[in-house]
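note to self: the first set is below, dont mix up w the second
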Amino acid sequence: ADKKEKDKNILNKSLDVTSTASEAKLTSSASKKSKVSLSVVDCHQETTDEQALCALTFESIAKKSALIPFLNLEKASLEVLLSVSNFLHAELSSLEHNIHFYIGQYQVSAKSHEEVNCIRLSKVAIQDEQMGEAQPVRSLVEVGTVPAPVNT
């Protein structure tokens, strides 16, 4: 029961992120806590050191990723607003580029597969035609007409 409680506490600690003093200026309230949704971590199979490292890693990631959504943009300076705007514009532009790139790759792959299928189907059709035109080969030797060897 104690191990399960410790595992639960470690997992809960890894999900809680409290604002630090420097980040408190950027949030609307220093007492706010942000939650980071994480996939379920099975702490029962990890050692204590691994659990502590896992908790520190999640806390670090959560602090960095929780910073932007809780910026107090109403009171932010023009430079901060411009910086956030430029960052978001660059991210969206990159995302749009990647979407167009992958759509293009998909279209090329689909066209390539279509061409390969057409080539294979035409080869099969040619083979079918050749097999249809082929005449059965008749044996020139009839059964029972082969002379028996002569013993001398």
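second set (the one i keep forgetting abt)
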Amino acid sequence: MLSEQQNAALDAIKVWIKSDKQVFRLFGYAGTGKQQPVDSEVQTPSGVRRLGDLREGDWVFGQDGMPVLVTGVFPQGVKPAYRITFRDKSTAECGPDHLWAVWTNKLRQTNKPPVVLSLQEIINNGVRHTGGGYRYSIPLCEPVSYTERDLPLHPYLMGALIGDGTALGTTPILCCPDVDRDIADRCIGLLPENTKS
């Protein structure tokens, strides 16, 4: 059973999901569905941070993969938490009041937006159908846009070394047959100045 504040938050989220607006802000009272452990990892433009270390004014990534400003922090105290394991074996922890955007097979097949349910509602409804298939799927976050950084190696060069090379010993080696000469030439052009001979 959801509280009055949770129902109001849920109604606001449902209206937003059906709209064409890209930004949604929920200023929720304690108990409106944001319950996660303080040691949860949160992706931020400057790297991974603990949820408990975030403060008002910090930036985190939103569902659209873009940075979103933290406008408030509301410690929840000690509460029960569940560990959810997804099909790909990744996990998340949250309390029974945490709100999730979920698709059912029918919503997905009819190209409808996800619905919002608390973890407790998901548990009460059952995670699997009687036939064994999963009842819900969770929308993935869009790719995140990290802040550009100066890296010691260009990402293409690093990928080529991982895919077609070795870094054993003191000198990295890229193995390219003549047919891949364009890859070798591009990698040579991307070498840092102090490594070219």
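remember for set 2: Residues 27-33 have pLDDT under 50 and may be disordered.
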